[in-house]
Amino acid sequence: MNYFKDCTTLDEAKKLFKDLARKLHPDKNPTNPQATAQFQAMLNEFHSFKPSKEKFKGESDQWNGETYSAIIIQLMNIEGIEITVCGSWIWLEGDTKPVKDKIKAVDCGEFMKRGFSGNKGQWYFSPKGYRKRSGKQHSFDDIKGYFGAEKVNKNQSNRLNA
Known about the structure:
- The protein has two domains: 1-63, no CATH class; 80-155, no CATH class.
- Helix content is 33%, strand content 15%.
- It has five helices and five strands; from the N terminus they run H-H-H-E-E-H-E-E-H-E.
- A five-stranded antiparallel β-sheet has the order 3-4-2-1-5, sandwiched between helices.
């Protein structure tokens, strides 16, 4: 297939990945014997995606689709949190205190890191190479407004296990 052929940026590919992950996961299509192969083909294509347009110089060099998709899939299995993708960051909203050990157990790979923002009261996953360049504190609403944000909707009856 060529799932990501029309995507030119990482943001477009990430958005399409979230939609396809929910739609194509084998748990959503238990009677389709080819569901696992289709899902794996989509994952492989996402992992090898390279954007033709970048927001900033070197954006694609810092990108690792395997790590990103693995984090999203792991987080989708945790009850009680809302996942928001904002730029290259993944933010967790909701009452995360009861599930903080599950959040800490998410494998970040070598390209991402996990942290807790005391100012915002939220967990996040960000690129390891990220360096804050200003001393300003921004609210989460300001960050979402600037970078755009996309909630990852979780289907409570069908968790992803890839």
